[in-house]
Batch of 4 targets.
Target 1
Amino acid sequence: MTLAELDGLTADAARAEFLRCCGSARWAEGMARRRPFASKAGLLAAAEEEWALTGEKDRLEAFAAHPKIGGKDALREKFAATAQWAKGEQAGAAAADEATLDALARGNADYEARFGFIFIVCASGRSAAELLSSLRARLPNAREAELKTAAAEQAKITRLRLEKLLA
């Protein structure tokens, strides 16, 4: 879709497109209201500004829009789908060994139990082992610090998705 096409959508259609990029209804509504955008850079700047206006409830809503990583089959599907979507950036993650997949599944369960939301990380170009390392490094965080870290990761994911939307 082009920027002009995005700007020309109805408000409801624009919100739906923005929700594909970030699952926060408040963020998507804000982005739909800010149209038209003068440039891709303007769109990306607006996305950052709107994300900065969100609160914890909005951020948790965005996090919840991501598929929950659970068992090994779900992990394989997630990595395979992401690798496809990112055009091979994560091909190595799709071939992760059983021990890494087991550890990711356990780590994700521990993370959600500790923080009350799923592990959010911009996985583009990263292997399953790198993601596991990030998860383990973040588990000791205080909830407030982790919420900020997860929000920063969500912002990265949103930017990538907006770029793909306009590709």
Target 2
Amino acid sequence: MRRMAMVTAAVLGLSLSPALAAMDAQEFVDKAYTGGMFETQTSRMALHLSGNAAVRDFARQMIADHTKANADLKAIAEAADLKLPVTLDPERQDSLEALKSAGDAFPGRYVAAQQKDHRAAIALFERYLAEGGNPQLKGFARQVLPTLKQHQAAIDAIAATNPAN
């Protein structure tokens, strides 16, 4: 079916919609790596700006897990001659800046940011597993996805307690 859509699009001179196009390896690396950078940067902030033990424990786990995942992703990307981003994407940079100036609202905003980012990461990794073409990146996505789902469950549980500090 997919091949037929590609042939039809080519014959008619149409471009494929993003929904039909396979996810590019570089796009996956960019999004996954910046997601990991965001998780670790905001979690380092949480260690300093939150007095909530559950938030701080979660932040420590994020730093450990996402540092390891990004190191693994870096090795795969370098072997495939893919570039690694060195800065956050504009949306995450804006979120990081908002967290820096959140003051007393930091813990709740950190939790909300983690929920949002983990939902996006899970969707990204699932999409790459379904559509990606690089076997090493698919293996990475398959390996990391359960951890991302554990993170989502943990941050959702913390959100349910309404962390105030």
Target 3
Amino acid sequence: MEQSTLSELVEIDVSEIEHSPLINEDIAPTTIAQRTWSTYNIAALWIGMSVCIPTYMLASGLIAGGMNWWQAILTIALGNVIVLIPMILNAHAGTKFGVPFPVLARASFGTLGSNVPALLRAIVACGWFGIQTWIGGQAINAMLAVLFPSWGTLSIGPWISFSIFWAMNVYFIVNGTESIRWLESLAAPFLLVVGLALLWWAYERGGGWGPILSQPSKFQTIGEFWKFFVPSLTGMVGFWATLSLNIPDFSRYAQSQRAQILGQAIGLPPTMTLYSFIGVAVTSATIIIFGEAIWDPVALLAKFNNPIIILLSMISLLVATLTTNIAANVVSPANDFSNLMPKKISFRTGGLITAFIGVIMMPWKLLSDYGTYIFGWLIGYSSFLGPIAGVLIADYFIIHKRKLNLKDLYLRNGEYEFTKGFNIKALIALGCGVILALIGLLVEELRFLYDYAWFVGFAVAFGVYAAIMKRN
């Protein structure tokens, strides 16, 4: 790295704080020598996470809900451009100081209070881990049914397949963060090729772009469209609202701010838009080919008659799901749980806790239909994540002006001790954002507050936190 790049990064002598109960090897600040992730590595990370079955299901779920192809693509593209902004802003501190998300949260919520946003984020990640693992398990189940037709008659087949894919995830958890970077960098180009091949199939079988993209919107008026569009946009932002918080977990390994900014800008919105278009086009093609909109790719591939195509496709789905699950849904909760008791909970232990809670949350219920998935799961948890993002960004850019006491982030009774480890003002701002967003769920006349849950929560928490902290 050039000297100008090094000058923007901060590190400390860890030996000065290794006695603290707030540090272990996994959440300690990365040294400049450890910050090796280039623009390509960051972009590959996002490509690997974006090219996944939930992305496909999200896009085609909009089609099933009544949108035409360009309305769905516009909604998804806009949502990802919006969420890229807090993504880049929160990543800044991770790159500059080498700290993961729960440690960064100590600057605003306090050395112990940081566990509140960390655990809220961790529980969401556990839910996502379960969803991805269930999807991967269904892909394995479909593959086994092709290889062994009698397998399809077993009632416990899906559960055995779920367990197999769960064990595959645990393997990478045990092998740590570096194995994740290797997996993402290797899989990213492969997954894009597979996606484009699926798009070519839709084009050929659907009779060209005309028939595929001619499916009209089901909305008769602008009012009908807007009623569906608003919560859908919030759902799109909510899709990556989790990563917009814990992106420091990855950006702490970036070579520079330029690498994290360009890597995310190149890897996230374009890939999400492209793969979403694939989901939209293929789902539209299924209406023509099969007479119904099939928005579950596992169910779609099961309709193919060629066993070789089914096997290759299912393997690609497994790789896509595995890369997303490990990077997006294991790294953060592993660090978050470790933040609870750094001396007793390591990254691996935290990852295993995530794997077990993910099963308990019954992911098959969350995927029962697109309404539950988009309007229940995605919007519901965004009402908690938006306010957290508002507090973090207001604290780092408005209150501390991008200057943190790195050493005190790992010490009790230091600058970030506040009131016995808790910054009450941050918790008040968080509560205000969450409550206002959820009021819309309880009061029908204020439903728009819930439909805009992430935006409302972010704005309220940002404003309240900046106002009450400046009064010091």
Target 4
Amino acid sequence: MNLEKAAELSHAEWREMAAKLKQSAETRLFIGGQFVDAIDGGTFDNICPVDGSVINKCAAGKKADIDKAVEIAKRSFKSGEWSRMAPRNRMAVMYKWAGLIGENAAELALMDTIDMGKPISDMLKADIPMCINTVEYFAECIDKVTGSVTATEYDVMSTVLREPIGVVGCISPWNYPLLMALWKIVPSLAAGNSTILKPAEQSPLSCYRVAALFVEAGGPPGALQVINGLGEQAGQALARHMDVSKISFTGSTEVGKLIHAYSGESNMKKVSLECGGKGPQVFCEDLEGELLDRAVTTAINGIFFNMGEVCSAGSRLIVHAKIYDEFVAKFIEKGKDAYICGDPLDPAVNLGPLVDHQSQARVLGMIDKAKSEGGRILFGGAAPANGLEKGAYVIPTMITGVKSNDYVAQNEVFGPVVSVIKVESDDEAIEVANNSVYGLQGSVWTDNYRRAMRYVREIECGTFLVNAFEEGDMTQPFGGYKQSGNAKDKCFESLLSYMNTKAAWFRLN
């Protein structure tokens, strides 16, 4: 079912579809173009965050399964069935794949909603359209990859070639299960690599389905495989494998550091990391009127959208003292009831549960820690009590009185919790914004573009926005500074990062 038809479904219809999909969804490993059980037969429970029930049992891939997939991927790469396919032919497969994703939009959207509690309306309005856009964008890039002929002496020709790396391992997170996976596997495939995806064990369903659609579109079975399993088993085995030439990882900074170590302990494979964030949004003293209203509304969406489970979420609001009281009052007025917890299968609901009860306990614990350090809870701060007690829900929360070095201001919450920090000057705002081990995304709101340029120059982050937040398109590099990682997703640069550069020197005489 495509997006247009899916948008017409009611809550009851989504619930009926979900009940059927839980029974029919494929949960085995996708190896060599076929769904197979784990070699040792192992499984684990896939838990629903809405009520804690078991959705289904998923195959638990381990080292032996990774070894099998790598062997197939290596053989496929060397055969040239994908790596040496003519660029326009590879483009045709990718375009057909994008079309199949669109045709199966309802099923793919429902899988992510079932797995991690993302509101179905968000899947239809944001995630699935961006998934299609991702595949189409990198398909367009395939025949735009060129080498060069360098300037040399008369009897020499020197060329620079770009070649696929080989076998690439991709490890994707659960907060955007399908989209983040595609941000990795699509540029890898567009570059001609054989690719193995290890999705987050909390949300594998859509990744299995999209891999099967790739083969249906004409992709070779060995070019894309999916091995679900625990990170310390399947993920570690992929990152340590001697025949894997690159690992692309999105997840926590802690695990990102381990991936680097695994590379050094094995074959020094290339490592691309997109890790945590603690996004600062600065609101300057010159804000007023419509711009102030828009800034507040954007700040609300920048932290509460997707339950705050966004690495680039604007979780630190740094507000000048001159507008502080007005800003806080408007944020309460507009934000307190902007996101309401409910059944994510209801198209009217815009806030689902966190991914699991462990995350819920961690987020609630961080709120308690903020209170112990002097923070004031202006709204939220608890789990809902309106029949959602079995779910991993947290009510959207606003905390004021936060200091720059407080625990909640320094650590990634990954939940619908915003901290507000008062500052007296631009100098202090920049110091507070940069007082973090992270540097993924930030923004400034001001009516003075000279001031804005200063913030662009001085804030330490990989993506920075002026009078906006969480905007961009596929041409915009997405990635961070410092402990937010070293990679750029989306963009043409991402595609090139999945290729090797080779210099060739021809002595003609």
